[in-house]
């Protein structure tokens, strides 16, 4: 991956803050590091000093695979702070598309020769899904991972986020529901295959991180939503003498049954204290494949439904076609949401 210049890192941070509705005025020269800026939104008026580096892996085989870091270079030997000004120590992870924020108060003295500050992979992945996540560095120091569109809020809540007593509530308030990408099924297939490949090389999944446990609970909740969707997929009553057939009679039985079976198996596995990651990954490939087939079936049914509406007045056939088109599309979206969570969890483990 090509190295990102300091000027680009600074410019991108400014644009991220602006994208969330803040007015930003530079108080230092373009490309100067640290950068000083003024942020205004509503009644909030903040002056900030920004240090930033690229996030990389923790360094060498001696470091844990899940550990990522910023390495303090650029001639910085001590972070500058001023009364009435917020000092940000940021990292940008190109791999995860996430900013990492560190507590300058925990690194207030001389920094020594090329020191580094770490953050866990689980927090970076979790933030990508829900917007923000925290990582405890030791017992007291809190590191924060945020999506770019929440960087302004991170600055606004800076002191509260880096306090372990108030951080969980602040994280909860910042989190948002983000749109599920249309290719969530394809991404999940890639994540599942990477997990299986990692296991084949002898890599050990890392359980026990608070973000990993939280992600598993999100998976369980989203898979439960699939069960609820299955119950809602049956077409409406056509008449008193024509009760609807089960969804499998209208939508392709294969993908619906595959999705249901894989969903239930994954939910059962991730509920365990130490899930069989290989089993989850294998079932994820089945679930993702079913989602892809349902997406195609939904598109075909939608076209068929339009033909029925235009050319056929048989209300029973028209209602059945509509049920397949609408129900299949909704079911695919529900699966996509679950697959996004499963893929994120698999990325946390290795």
Could you please describe the fold and organization of this structure?
- With 350 residues, this protein is of the alpha+beta class.
- 50% of the residues lie in helices and 17% in strands.
- It has 11 helices and 10 strands.
- The chain has a 7-stranded mixed sheet, with helices on both faces. Strands 4-5-8 form a 3-stranded antiparallel sheet.
- Helix 2 packs antiparallel against helix 11 and helix 7 packs antiparallel against helix 9 (253-270).
- The longest helix has 35 residues, at 277-311.
Helix content: 40-55%
What profile does the largest beta sheet have?
7 strands, mixed
Q: How much is the average pLDDT?
A: 86
Topology-level CATH name of the largest domain: Trna Endonuclease, Chain: A, domain 1
| Estimated radius of gyration | 24 Å
Shape: globular
| End-to-end gap | 19 Å
Tally of helical runs: 11
Strand ordering within the main sheet: 1-2-3-6-7-10-9
Q: Which sequence of SSEs, written as H and E, runs from N to C?
A: HEEEEEEEEHEEHHHHHHHHH
CATH architecture of the largest domain: 3-Layer(aba) Sandwich
Work out the strand percent. 15-25%
Which regions contain 5 or more consecutive residues with pLDDT less than 50? 245-252, 307-326
Which CATH top level class of the largest domain fits? Alpha Beta
Report the strand count.
Answer: 10
Structural class: alpha+beta
What number of domains? 2
């Amino acid at each position: 991956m090509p190295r990102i210049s300091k000027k680009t890192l600074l410019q991108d941070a400014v644009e991220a803050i602006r994208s969330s509705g803040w007015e930003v005025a530079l108080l230092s020269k373009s490309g100067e590091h640290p950068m000083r800026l003024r942020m205004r939104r509503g009644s909030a008026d903040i002056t900030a000093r920004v240090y930033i580096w690229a996030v990389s892996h923790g360094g060498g085989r001696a470091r844990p695979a899940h550990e990522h870091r910023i390495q303090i270079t650029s001639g910085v030997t001590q972070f500058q702070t001023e009364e009435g000004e917020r000092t940000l120590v940021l990292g940008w992870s190109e791999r995860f598309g996430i900013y990492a924020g560190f507590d300058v108060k925990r690194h207030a003295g001389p920094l020594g020769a090329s020191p580094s500050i770490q953050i866990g992979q689980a927090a970076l992945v979790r933030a990508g899904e829900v917007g923000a996540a925290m990582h405890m560095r030791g017992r007291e120091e809190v590191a924060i991972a945020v999506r770019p569109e929440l960087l302004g809020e991170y600055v606004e809540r800076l002191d509260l986020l880096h306090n372990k007593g108030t951080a969980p509530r602040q994280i909860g308030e910042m989190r948002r529901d983000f749109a599920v990408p249309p290719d969530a099924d394809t991404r999940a297939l890639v994540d599942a295959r990477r997990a299986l490949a990692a296991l084949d090389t002898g890599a050990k999944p890392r359980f026990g991180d608070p973000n990993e446990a939280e992600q598993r609970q999100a998976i369980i909740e989203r898979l439960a939503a699939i069960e609820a969707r299955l119950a809602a997929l049956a077409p409406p009553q056509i008449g008193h003498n024509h009760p609807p057939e089960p969804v499998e009679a209208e939508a392709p039985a294969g993908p619906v049954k595959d999705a249901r079976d894989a969903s239930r198996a994954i939910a059962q596995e991730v509920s365990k204290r130490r899930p069989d990651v290989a089993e989850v990954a294998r079932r994820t490939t089945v679930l993702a494949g079913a989602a892809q087939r349902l997406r195609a079936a939904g598109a075909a049914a939608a076209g068929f439904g339009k033909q029925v509406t235009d050319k056929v007045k048989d209300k029973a056939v028209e209602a059945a076609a509509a049920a397949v088109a609408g129900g299949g599309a909704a079911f695919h979206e529900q699966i996509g949401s679950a697959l996004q969570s499963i893929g994120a969890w698999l990325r946390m483990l290795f």
